[in-house]
Specification:
The complex is a heterodimer of chains A (360) and B (411). Chain A is of the alpha+beta class and 360 residues long. Helix content of chain A is 49%, strand content 17%. The longest helix of chain A is centred in the last third of the chain and has 32 residues. By secondary structure, chain B is of the alpha+beta class. Helix content of chain B is 48%, strand content 14%. The longest helix of chain B is centred in the last third of the chain and has 30 residues. The chains are: A alpha+beta (360), B alpha+beta (411).
Amino acid sequence: MLGFQPTEEQQLIRDTVAELAREQIRPVAHDADESGAIPGAVVQQAWELGLVQSTIPEAYGGVGTPSSAVTGTLICEELAWGDLAIALHMLAPQLVTYPVMTLGTHEQKQQILSSYIGPNFTAGTAALMEPRFGFDVNELATTAERKSGDFVINGRKCFVPLAEDAAQILVYARIGNDLSAFLVPRGTPGLNITEREKNMGLQAVATYELSLDDCRVPAPSQLQGDLQPVLNRSRVALATMAVGVAKAAYQYAREYAKERRAFGVAIAQKQAIAFMLAEMAMEIDAARLLVWEAAWKIDAGEDATREACLAKNYAADMVLKVTDNALQTLGGHGYIRDHPVELWLRNGRGFSTFEGLAMV
Amino acid sequence: MIDFSLSPAVQKNRDMMRSVADGTMRPISREYDEREHEKPTEWLNMMWNATKNLVSFGDGKQKQEPQEKTDRRPSERNVRSAVLVEELSWGDVGLYLSIPHPGLGGAAVAAAGTPAQKERFLARFRDGEPKWGAMAITEPGCGSDSAAVATTAVQDGDQWVLNGTKIFCTSGLMAAEKSEGFVVVWATIDKSAGRHGIKAFVVDHHTPGMTVAKIEDKMGIRVSDTAMLVFEDCRIPVDNLLGSAEVKKSTEGFKGVMATFDATRPLVAASAIGVARAAVDYVRDIFRREDITIRYTTPPTKLSTLERDFMDMEASLQAARLLTWRAAWMLDQGRHNSLEASMAKAKAGSVVTQVTQKAVELLGPLGYSRKILLEKWMRDAKISDIYEGTQQINLLIIARRILGYSSKELN
C-alpha cells in the first residue's frame, strides 16, 4: 500500500547521516574543493558509522544488515547535501563491495569483502567511464579477451575515484557484446594509473585516469552474472545525490532571498524570485519521488532499469536547473567562491555525464 | 514506509474504472466533442446508476462510504479517488467532468457544512434522478483573486438575498436547471471586510432569481457545460450559509472554504495525469507499430530526439503522478497538505500541457488531425493548467509556504 514515509529505522539513519553532513562535511567542503584534499578525519567518521561495511554479510565479517536501495537513497542524498565530492570519497568502497556482494563467488567475497571490515577507512573503487566522445555503457571501448585461461584487458578509463589508494579496481570491460567486470589488483602489469584528473567539479575527491594495456588477470577475477542490477543501483545512487546537491543549493538560495533586500523588501517577496524558488522545491520533490520509486522497485526484486534511467536523467536535468537558478538568485554573489552555490553548480553539471560513480 | 504499490482494493477499483473508460467513454469521446452543448444522456444515466452508491471520485459522497475507521486500516479514500479520476480522465476528461456528482459544490458542503446541511444537500445524491452540484466563484471581474468577489449577499429576515454574476461554473447548467442539484455561490456579506466578508451559500436548483445566462463555447472539455449564472434578488433560506455568518478579523471562514482545494487539487492533478497518460499511451502504441524502440540505458547524448522527447514525457508524467499520490496520501493520513496539493496541481497542469502538445508534434499530420483523439487531448489538457487555481496561483501558494510568507508579504 502506498506510503511516502521512511520507516523509523530509516529515519534514524537519515538523521544520523544528516548530522554528519551538517556538522562535519559542510564545514570542510569549501577548503576541500580549493585544496583538492579531504580531511581524513571526516572520511573516518563516516566509516565509523558503518555506511559501507554494515551490509557485508556476517560470514565475511560484516554486520549483515540487508542491503536496501531505498535506505541507500536516503543516505546518499544527505551525504551529497553535505558535499558531493566528499560523499563520493566516503562511499567509493561500495563501488567494489556491492558488486562483489551480489555477484561474487565465495572466494571473491572472502578475498574482497573481508578487507572492508576493519576499523579504518579502506579505499575501494571501480572503473566504468571512458575518456572519449560518445561514451556509452552499452558499448564500452575497453575490451577483455580470453587468452589461455586468463583475461587480457585493453582500454582507457576515467573518473576512477581513489584509484591510487585502492588495493583492487573493479574494471568494467566488454567481452564481445556483453558487459563484464574484473577485479584488477593494483600493481597488475599493464594497469597504469596515469594522472589525477582536474575537473570542473569534484575537485576534492581524487579521481584518476587509467590505461589498461594488455593487462592480464586470471579467469577467476571475472564477476559472473548480470551487471544490469548493479548499474541500476549506481544510477539510483547518482540520481539521489543530484537531489541532495539540488536541495543544498535550493535551501541556500531560499535563505539568502529572505535576507537580501532590494527595493525595500526581501527579494523573496518578488514573484520573479519566489516563483523560481517554488519551482525548485517542486522539482526537487518530483525527482526524489522518481528516485524513491526506482529504489523501491529494486528492493522489491523487480527489473528497475527503465525507472532508474528515467530517474537519473530527470534528476540530472533537475539539479542543473536548480543549482543554476540558485546561483541566479544570489546574482553576482553567487558567482563568488565565498558562497558555495557556484561549487554546487559545478558539481551539479556533472550528473548528466556521470555513470557508475556511486552505489546505493 | 516508502511503498509505491497500490492496495489490491484500489487496483481492483482502478481496473474496473479502466474498462468503463475504455469501453464506454472512448467510443463516444469524439462525438460529444463535436456536438458541443449536447449531453450523452444515456451514458450519464448509466454512470449515475453505477456510481451513486459506490465510489467517491470527487468528494462529498463520503458519508455513504463504508466506515473505514472501524476496519482499522488507514484510509485510502483520497488515493483511491486520485487513481479513479486518472482512469476516467484517460477515457475522456470532459465526460468525467460531466458525471452526475456533488462536484466542487459538494466538496465545499462536505468541508464547511454543518451535519444538518450535509444531510440536506448531499443525501439527494444517493438516489432518484441524476443530480449535479456546482461551485460558482469566478466573476467577470475576478478569477484567481477570489477574495475580490463582488457578488453580494444581504440578510433580509430569514433569507439571504444574492445579487451578482458568476462565470466559468462547471456543470452550472446541470446543477441549476437540469437536475435537482445545487450551486455553492461565493458572495460577500461585507465588502469593507475584504476576504473576511466572503461566505459560501448553497443555492438550490430552480431558485427564483438564479438564471443560466450563457453556456460558454470552449477550446476543449466541450461536453462539460461551463455556465454563466446571474443572480438577481435571488432569495435563499438563511441557513444555506456554509459556516458562520460572523465577519471575524480572522480569515477562518475564508480559509475553511479555501481548504476545500487541498482535497480537490490532487484530483484536478490526477485528472490532468489521466489526459497526459492517454497521449503517452497513444504515442507508445504508434512507436510499437512503427518498430521504434526506446533505448532507456543509452546516454541522452546518443538518443534520437524522438527517444529523448518520449522519455521526458514518461518521466514527467510519472513525477506528476507521484506528487499527486503523495498529496492524496497525506490527506488520507490526516496531514496538512496545502503545499503538496499545490505542487501536484502546478506540476500536473504544466506536464499535461507540455506532454499533449509534444504528442501532437511527434505525430505530425496525424497528431493534428481530428480523425484521432490526440488533438482533442491537447485541447482538453490546457484547462488543467488553469482551473482550480492557475499554474501561477499554485506557484504563489508553494512560494508562500516554503518561505513562510503571508499573502500580504508575498503577493
